[in-house]
């Protein structure tokens, strides 16, 4: 005799682009977004916390992150990015 698991729905509001990009990555791994969320929640229960370390960056790291963000560039194509990298 098979036993059906009792399930519930979970709703979460997230940025549409984030959902699409994450879904593409997960699909490449053979997982659905629901599969990944179930895995994450199982790890939360197993580890009794987040399954990764969350830290507040040190003052030095925060400054470096801010500087890196300020000089970040966006490119219209890979070719543009490679030309810029070659110019350095």
UniProtKB/TrEMBL annotation:
Pfam family, one: RelB
Domain of life where this protein originates: Bacteria
Protein keywords: Toxin-antitoxin system
GO biological process: DNA-templated transcription; regulation of DNA-templated transcription; single-species biofilm formation
MF terms (GO), sorted A to Z: cis-regulatory region sequence-specific DNA binding; toxic substance binding
Alphabetical list of InterPro entries matching this protein: Arc_rbn_hlx_hlx, DinJ, RelB/DinJ
Family affiliation: Belongs to the RelB/DinJ antitoxin family.
Identification of the protein by name: Toxin-antitoxin system protein
